[in-house]
Amino acid sequence: MNTVLITGCSSGFGVEIARYFLDRDWQVIATMRTPREDVLPKSERLRVLPLDITNAESIRQVVEAAGPIDVLVNNAGFGAASPVELTPMATARELFETNTFGTMAMTQAFVPQFRERGAGVIVNVTSSVTLKALPLVGVYSASKAAVNAFTASMAAEVEPFGVRVRLVLPGRSPETRFGDNARAHMHGMENEAYTELVTNVLARMRDDSGPVTHSPDVAEAVWRAATDPSTPLRIPAGEDAVAWAKAG
To answer: What DSSP string runs through 100-164?
Structure first.
């Protein structure tokens, strides 16, 4: 029976990805900073483990506890929205520490077993904001675009060992905490130069009337990336993400 380890399973895409694999009879290791088994269906094939992807010891413990796995899904991350000029460097470093370096650290931790076995898949979940320039998400987009870049290089590095690496790029979703997290880290309302822009962007964030991405879109894309060797390196997930990818 195949085993998948998924990061960031406390809500949003992570929960849906875990459910998707459980429904298809996989062993699922769902990780999150503070384990909550109530967010996922009870199953003998489910393990919930604590994990802080910014902490090397936490990663080491998860690798040891998980044992051999077949697929690693790097889904954990958070969003922030504010003008680049007004984004505190502490926030910028936090974004990169989680979204970029955390994903890189998890990848480095599991690649050796895949390479030695000659099989395995890594799926990195980034964002469709890397496909289209949008205001107020410059630093967030940069942290995700960095993952896109190292994923593409790594895919070429490990392919000779029988290891596949793929990217899933979700669009804007009303079902995740991105909007709440982004607003929590927002700066600019206190600066008159950006007040109008921030107000307009906030209004668009609340507007779900256009094409959006739903959690099952992302789960299905991750499943295809994990199980179908013919999938391309970059897989947009969600109606809006697919449209942006075609336009780009």
So the answer is: IIIHHHHHHHHHHHHHHHT-EEEEEE--GGGTS--TT-HHHHHHHHHHHHHHHHHHHHHGGGTEE
Topology (CATH level 3) of domain 3-247: Rossmann fold (3.40.50)
What count of Cα atoms within 13 Å lies in the side-chain half-sphere of residue 134?
A: 24
pLDDT tens for each residue of the chain, 248 residues long: 899 999 999 989 999 999 999 999 999 999 999 988 788 999 999 999 999 999 999 999 999 999 999 999 999 999 888 899 999 999 999 999 999 999 999 999 999 999 999 999 999 999 999 998 889 999 999 999 999 999 999 999 999 999 999 999 998 877 655 555 555 555 556 677 888 888 887 777 766 667 888 899 999 999 999 999 999 999 999 888 898 888 76
Whether 194 sits among the annotated catalytic residues: the reply is: no
Query: Cβ-count burial of 35 within 10 angstroms (0-12 exposed, 13-18 middle, 19+ buried)?
Result: middle
Which residue among 20, 42, 140, 246 is the active-site one?
140
Model confidence, pTM: 0.93
Helices H / strands E in the chain, number of each? 9, 7
Residue 20 annotated as catalytic: no
Catalytic residue among 20, 42, 144, 194: 144
